[in-house]
């Protein structure tokens, strides 16, 4: 069997999510996960040429976040669920609201002794006409069902 002395090493696998869940923060995390998966796919092919098995180490996402926007969170949850490389989520401080959803979506989940996870129902600031409030309520119910599933 060949050695891996001259073969490239995988990318950094520790990711830190210590922000509000929003488009920018989720975009950064999503990009990192996809890049690591692409890198692992490339390394698997490259190592196989040398008859060496490449077994990727898990991606670790360290979480300390109060949460944020549900729609953006859903995109990340899909990426985590579909990741070929295992993803371990670790709460170091708090994982509240959407950050809690990120935590429980990990392929393996961990929490530090003094960490604080928090789950709550979807909230929306309902204002406007009666029809607008009813529409927001229906959308909130739909989101809640998705979260619970």
Describe the structure.
The chain is built from four helices and five strands, in the order βαβαβαββα. With 149 residues, it is an alpha/beta fold. Strands 1, 2, 3, 4 and 5 form a five-stranded parallel β-sheet that branches. Helix 3 links the parallel strand 3 and strand 4. The protein is elongated, with a radius of gyration of 19 Å. It starts with 13 loop residues before the first strand and ends with a helix. The mean pLDDT is 88.
Detail the topology: elements first, then pairings.
Blueprint: E1 14-17, H1 23-49, E2 59-65, H2 70-82, E3 87-96, H3 98-105, E4 108-111, E5 116-118, H4 130-148
Helix pairs in contact: 1-2, 2-3
Radius of gyration: 19 Å
Task: State the end-to-end CA separation.
Answer: 46 Å
**Could you name the ranges where pLDDT drops below 50 across 5 or more consecutive residues?**
none
Category from helices, strands and their pairing: alpha/beta
The geometry reads as elongated
What can be said about the biggest beta sheet? 5 strands, parallel
Order of helices and strands: EHEHEHEEH
Enumerate how many helices there are, as a single number: 4
Beta-strand content: 15-25%
